[in-house]
Structures are given as structure tokens and as C-alpha cells.
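Subject: Predicted fold for DUF4296 domain-containing protein, 140 residues

User T.R. writes:
Posting the sequence so we have a shared reference for the thread.
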Amino acid sequence: MIGMRKQHTKALMGKAIIKYVLLGCLLVLVLIGCTNKDKIPGDVLPREEMEKVMWDMVQADRFSSQFLERDSIARKDIKTENLKLYEKVFQVHKITKEEFVHSFQFYLSRPDINKVLFDTMAARANRRRADVYTNPEMAQ
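User M.O. replies:
I've generated the C-alpha cells; pasting them so everyone works from the same file.
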């Protein structure tokens, strides 16, 4: 009888241990699931700042294609001129090329955040285009 009681007690203890292990695993899963997936690491430019930098880089490319490619002197070394424009964008935003590249790679690895970034830029371009059509002086 005592032997059966010991076996029964061991079985109950085993079940209790399994319950605690399962409860611990569930707790870990809940904590992992509740982490902020939209959190951007500290060494990456925040989305709003990255949007501004990329907007200015698009504007630099636009300037290059509209003016520098038509200039016979600048056309000789258009790539160098583009790099100079990018450096000016980095200076304006007080970042380095390396910081931009690192941040850009992060956003490329996160399509969910990247989509928001590019959608916001597209909306900004559409607003700007509409403003220019309604008020041509803004194009200057």
C-alpha cells in the first residue's frame, strides 16, 4: 500500500512539474508575442527621419536628371556629382553615409515598415504634384 502511495505521489509530482514547464513555456511565448514588432533599433534612423533623408535624395536625383545631365561639363562626371549631392543631403540631416546605408538595409529587411515609408513618400509626392498643378508658382 505504501509503495502504491509513493508511485501515486511521484505521478502527481510529475504532472505538476509538466504543468509548470508548460505554464513557463506559455509565459515565454506570450512575452515574445507581445514585443513591439515595429520597434526600430537605436542605431537605425527613425522612420520619419529616414523618410526625410530619402525624400531629399530623390530630390537630388531629380535635380541631377533635370539639370546636371543637360550640362555638358557636369555630364562628364555625373556619378561624382551625384555622390556630392548625396553627401550634401547627409550633411543637411547630420548623418553619415554609413548610417544611411545601415538604416536603408534595415528598412529593406522589414517590408512591413518599408511599405509605410514608401507609401508616405508617395503620398507626399502626390500632394506636392497636386499643389504644383493648382499653384504653379510652387514649382519654382
